[in-house]
């Protein structure tokens, strides 16, 4: 895709066609995987026609998701201008702003309230019984980097060790990952629909109330803790508060919840560091951040310190 000026024009043209009128001012929004433009009552996501297919996944799921869970899909398809083709999806803009990863600036009471509402929203998703194209789409998971079973985690750790020719990851941390894998379940369960990326940057809230969960590009079949992990792990200083809320709301023993979260973070960190080592020029900062967090999880026992 060409520069931002061209993309902006495309976004406005797509929005005007979906609304049947001029969309007014549209501003770019931060996104790692798409061009996203936001108007007063519409959001447009755009990607090159040859880009990854995760937007297509979201488009298939959107019309069938439980009512009120996410932003309504207004239009989707392909758009060609000057020999260039993009894929797009238009959504009605839902009121609210994202609390943000780490829930910065929120007090404990607000964090607790939002966590409780998030669990309820996720309960609707986990209780949904998809059929037809939605079911088939959820049954074909993308490479999500999360826990996929004991053997897969061991394979990822071995691949990381093989790729780490410069000993970037200390042996003690690799051994710690292996110790987590050793007691992991043989297989990951695929029993309910999960969002699989529901960190606090993908929620919207206003006046202390959750209004929507966005970005279903990674949605798949899994188990509820696959989503609870993101809500807890990305709660920043409110992690303990949010963990307590989820344990209470879901009747899950806190120790079990900690172990499940530790396992999932170990899998994600293994995957991310492996990706970063494969392209150090692009992912050097990510590698450093993930290694630092791996040290906190393994050596610092980050998921267990408050319980000891």
How do you describe this structure in short?
The chain has helices at 4-19, 54-61, 108-126, 132-138, 150-163, 171-182, 225-233, 239-250, 254-278, 280-298; strands spanning 27-29, 35-38, 42-48, 73-81, 84-92, 192-194, 203-206, 209-213, 220-222.
- Rg to the nearest angstrom? 20 Å
Order of helices and strands: HEEEHEEHHHHEEEEHHHH
State the helical fraction. Answer: 40-55%
CATH architecture of the largest domain: Alpha-Beta Complex
CATH topology of the largest domain: Aminoglycoside 3'-phosphotransferase, Chain: A, domain 2
**Envelope shape:** globular
Continuous helix count:
10
Query: How many separate domains?
Result: 2
* Number of DSSP-assigned strands: 9
Mean pLDDT: 94
The fraction of residues assigned to DSSP E strands is 15-25%
Features:
single chain; 308 residues; alpha+beta; Phosphorylase Kinase, domain 1; Aminoglycoside 3'-phosphotransferase, Chain: A, domain 2; 2 domains; five-stranded antiparallel sheet; two-stranded antiparallel ribbon; 10 helices; 46% helix
Summarize the structure in words.
The chain is α+β, with helices and mostly antiparallel strands. The protein has two domains: 4-92, 2-Layer Sandwich (Phosphorylase Kinase, domain 1); 108-307, Aminoglycoside phosphotransferase (APH), C-terminal lobe (Aminoglycoside 3'-phosphotransferase, Chain: A, domain 2). It is built from ten helices and nine strands. It has helices at 4-19, 54-61, 108-126, 132-138, 150-163, 171-182, 225-233, 239-250, 254-278, 280-298, and strands at residues 27-29, 35-38, 42-48, 73-81, 84-92, 192-194, 203-206, 209-213, 220-222. The strands form three sheets. A five-stranded antiparallel β-sheet has the order 1-2-3-5-4, sandwiched between helices. A two-stranded antiparallel ribbon has the order 6-9. A hairpin with a 2-residue loop joins β7 and β8 (209-213). α3 packs across α8 (239-250), α7 packs antiparallel against α8 (239-250) and α7 (225-233) crosses α9 (254-278). The longest helix is centred in the last third of the chain and has 25 residues, at 254-278. The chain is globular and about 60 Å long. The termini are far apart. The model has no long low-confidence stretch (mean pLDDT 94).
């Amino acid at each position: 895709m060409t520069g931002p000026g061209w993309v902006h024009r495309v976004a406005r043209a797509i929005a005007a066609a979906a609304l049947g009128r001029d969309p007014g001012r549209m501003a770019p929004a931060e996104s790692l995987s798409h061009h996203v433009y936001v108007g007063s009552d519409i959001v447009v996501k755009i990607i090159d026609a040859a880009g990854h297919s995760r937007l297509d996944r979201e488009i298939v799921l959107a019309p069938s998701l439980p009512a009120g869970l996410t932003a309504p899909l207004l239009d989707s398809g392909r758009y060609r201008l000057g020999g260039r083709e993009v894929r797009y999806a238009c959504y009605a803009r839902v009121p609210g702003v994202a609390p943000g990863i780490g829930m910065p600036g929120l007090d404990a009471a607000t964090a607790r309230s939002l966590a409780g509402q998030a669990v309820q929203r996720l309960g609707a998703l986990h209780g949904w019984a998809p059929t037809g194209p939605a079911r088939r789409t959820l049954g074909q998971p993308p490479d999500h980097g999360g826990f996929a079973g004991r053997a897969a985690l061991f394979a990822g750790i071995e691949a990381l060790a093989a790729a780490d020719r410069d000993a970037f990851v200390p042996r003690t941390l690799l051994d710690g990952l292996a110790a987590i894998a050793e007691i992991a379940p043989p297989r990951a369960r695929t029993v309910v629909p999960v969002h699989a990326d529901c960190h606090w940057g993908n929620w919207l809230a206003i006046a202390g109330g959750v209004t929507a969960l966005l970005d279903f590009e990674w949605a798949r079949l899994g188990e509820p803790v696959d989503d609870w992990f993101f809500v807890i792990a990305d709660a920043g200083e409110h992690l303990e508060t949010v963990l307590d809320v989820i344990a209470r709301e879901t009747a899950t023993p806190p120790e079990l919840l900690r172990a499940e979260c530790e396992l999932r973070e170990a899998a994600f960190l293994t995957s991310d560091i492996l990706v970063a080592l494969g392209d150090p020029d692009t992912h050097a900062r990510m590698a450093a951040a993930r290694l630092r967090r791996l040290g906190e999880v393994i050596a610092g026992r980050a998921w267990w310190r408050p319980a000891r």
